[in-house]
């Protein structure tokens, strides 16, 4: 992991920064390093986090509690505007709608609820267990050995450690179980915050790659919802993503994220669409 100055701003914070233009409008920039493949659009989780940063500013609440994003058109690298609307400002939570717009075209529509998770309290009972991955120091980074052209540009933003049972597809041997996951952290050494969880929820290759249904193309996200349950402790996140239904190219991807203290800190679900790679005729 790269050593860093403890006072430095993280790459994620820098690349999702927003500047307030008026009460409801914020300027931002889609930056290099977060695209999915080649000249494709920036990753959906990155765009969600960028929009949610502006929404948190408008809500005057530090933490996303739940955010849903619908991806309408792929933005290019460069300036964007986040146009927000305060829908409701309650005692514990504020709800904000937002649009990410570039050159007059709406690219992402978001709706989210924000609060202060450091003050959250109430009954707690979690009827699920953290994923049973081997210790992080026993694992390597199998994504770097994945087939050429299948890796996202922002691979270098995260340090991924995946167990053999979730990374067989990188060796041409998917398990067929529809499970991805492992351990991850920012490669620049900064700790995850609650906005970063939105990005991590979409930071793995499509889980359908593990289904053993042939040579699949990339899978653009149609809709992504992330529920944040707590502020993550510093250290590695344990992640698990599953799918149970691939129908006519549409599939769901469910995720759960656990912090270094073994606490459930986020749940996610997305709907995405995948197709087969075109065959090359001789």
Structure summarized in a few sentences:
With 282 residues, the protein is mostly beta strands. It is built from three helices and 13 strands; from the N terminus they run H-E-E-H-E-E-E-E-E-E-H-E-E-E-E-E.
Which helices and strands occur, and which strands form pairs?
Elements: H1 11-15, E1 19-20, E2 25-30, H2 44-59, E3 63-71, E4 78-89, E5 94-102, E6 105-115, E7 158-161, E8 179-186, H3 194-200, E9 221-228, E10 237-242, E11 246-247, E12 250-258, E13 264-273
Antiparallel strand pairs: 1-2, 2-4, 3-6, 3-9, 4-5, 5-6, 7-8, 8-10, 9-13, 10-12, 11-12, 12-13
Helix pairs in contact: 2-3
CATH architecture: Beta Barrel
CATH topology: Porin
CATH superfamily: Acyl-CoA thioesterase, double hotdog domain
Strand content: 25-35%
Low-confidence runs: 1-7
Count the helices. How many? 3
Spatial shape: globular
> How many structural domains does the protein architecture include?
1
Alpha-carbon distance between the two ends: 44 Å
N-to-C order of helices and strands: HEEHEEEEEEHEEEEE
CA radius of gyration: 18 Å
Structural class: mainly beta
